[in-house]
Amino acid sequence: MALLIDGKKISQQVVEEVATEVSDFIATYDVQPGLVVVLVGDDPASHVYVRNKIKRAAEVGLNSIEHRLPATCSQQELIDLIEALNNDEKVHGILVQLPLPEHIDEAEILNRINPVKDVDGFHPLNVGSLSSGKPSLVPCTPLGCMIMLKKVHENLSGKNAVVIGRSNIVGKPMAALLLQENCTVTILHSRTKNIEALCAQADIVVVAIGRPEFVSAHWIKPGATVIDVGINSIERDGRKKLVGDVDFSSVEEIAGAITPVPGGVGPMTIACLMKNTLTAAKIQILAKEVKHEFN
Ligand code: GUN
Q1: Residue 120 CA: which ligand 1 atom is closest?
Q2: Residue of 118, 120, 228, 245 with catalytic role
Q3: Residue 41, by phi and psi: left (phi above 0), alpha (psi -120 to 50) or beta?
Q4: Angle of helix 265-294 relative to helix 44-59, nearest 10 degrees?
Q5: What is the rounded distance in angstroms from the CA atom of residue 185 to the CA atom of residue 178?
Q6: Is the pLDDT of residue 295 over 80?
Q7: Are the beta carbons of 50 and 64 closer than 8 angstroms?
Q8: Do the Cβ atoms of 103 and 75 come closer than 8 Å?
Q9: What is the three-class DSSP state of 128?
């Protein structure tokens, strides 16, 4: 039976570390790190995610603010809000919850966030820094996956890692992080041939495709570590249930370690948002001090 990677417990450790550092930061600089989450429209899942982010942020001592805009708001209104937040020195982190309404150009919006306040790590400058191995703000979900992987593997160097899914939010940054740890990385996706056989060679499998229970036991090499990023709501026996992209009950019989859904990657993503907001605040306060020094 696989070792269960307890995302709830590990995220609690991260949150506690961040809370201590936030309190030290406030004591040192007399500045409370601030996070603004922008929610456009009425997507019910986004509302739940944003509520959880705001609640957690307040718990770690961040100044957390939610900005809601109606689904009908124009692209320019959203850009104006981002500009105002970019120029507000009390705001250290800006997160625009995705997806955005169809009439808004997502790439253009992400481009407008000041890269040092980009706690999602989606700005092209942060994407480029990550892919060239430079320090950057790293997308929260892949960062959370890496923290969990490092709890299982002291050294990831030389491992065969497979990432299933090629999204900008998870798949691509996940592959970049694994490569930074000297893994041999393969990205598998909907057009991949022999996907099951390729997956079965991996020591580490990260799945982020949004398809309920898609990956089953015969895809997995015995002893492999499996990180399941999927959160899918399904109906089973007349009841709603959350399941991952991995068929947990068959895969846990063969994997060496596995994340559950819920209680795996989900809580790590929020914990890493708190970590990124603190990192962003540190970057900004240091930049301010350096500027002061040279003026
Ligand atoms: N929607 C789903 N996941 C994410 C995320 O990590 N960040 C943002 N901004 N929106 C999302």
Answers
A1: 7
A2: 120
A3: left
A4: 60
A5: 7
A6: no
A7: no
A8: yes
A9: helix
Which protein residues touch ligand 1 with a CB less than 6 Å away? 95-98, 120, 140-141, 169
Residue 97 designated active-site: yes
Kindly give the pairing relationship between strand 239-243 and strand 232-236: antiparallel
Burial of 180 (C-beta count, 10 Å sphere; 0-12/13-18/19+): middle
Handedness of CA 12, 131, 170, 191 (dihedral sign): negative
Report the amino acid identity of residue 208. A
Q: Which residues contact 285 (CB under 8 A, 6 or more apart)?
A: 25, 29, 31
Q: Is 266 left (phi over 0), alpha (psi -120 to 50) or beta?
A: alpha
Q: What is the pLDDT of residue 288?
A: 87
Write down the pLDDT at residue 10. 98
Cα 141 to middle of ligand 1, angstroms: 9
Predicted TM-score of the model (pTM): 0.96
Q: Is 80 exceeded by the pLDDT of residue 293?
A: no
